[in-house]
Amino acid sequence: MSIMLAILVAWLFAVGTYLLLQRALTRIVLGLGLLSHGAVLLLITVGGRAGRPPLVGKGDDGSGIAAPLPQAFALTAIVIGFGVTAFLLALAYRSWVGTTDDEVQDDVEDRLSRVADDEGHFREPDPDEDEPWDEWDDDGDAVNDRAATKETKK
């Protein structure tokens, strides 16, 4: 039985990840729901076989009781999953009202990141400069304007 639950958890994670990587918001919400259900099932499976309630009475040595921590984690994961799903459904509805489409569009920053340099800056490299540019000068102060730094170095 444990092997079947492990296979089911793996399948839920795989399908959830596949749906999460799609561009349609409805598929993203469904993928997150499957990932959430897979996490809850994993937590319940890790808790072990079902036993007596996680309470120890008088004269009980505690053998055969169910582990309470995985159950608490599972309940917490269920509540967080419902909250995130409700939030994503509200965002998807708002996006659909604005665009009448549930497909996520490309962002301008996504296109710009393709032309960024190795450090992630959107600029043309300076042929006169041998050292890489960073946002801090030698004294540890933040540098906001690159041209001002060149003038102070000269």
CATH topology of the domain at 1-50 and 67-120: Helix Hairpins
Mean pLDDT: 77
- Which architecture name of the domain at 1-50 and 67-120 does CATH use? Orthogonal Bundle
Order of helices and strands: HHHHH
Structural class: mainly alpha
E-strand count? 0
Q: For the CA atoms, what is the radius of gyration?
A: 26 Å
Q: Can you characterise this structure?
A:
With 154 residues, this protein is mostly helical. It has a domain at 1-50 and 67-120: Helix Hairpins (Orthogonal Bundle), CATH 1.10.287. It is 56% helix and 0% strand. Helix 1 (2-20) packs antiparallel against helix 2 and helix 2 (25-46) runs antiparallel to helix 3. It is elongated, with a radius of gyration of 26 Å. The mean pLDDT is 77.
How would you summarize this macromolecular structure in one to three sentences?
With 154 residues, the protein is an all-alpha fold.
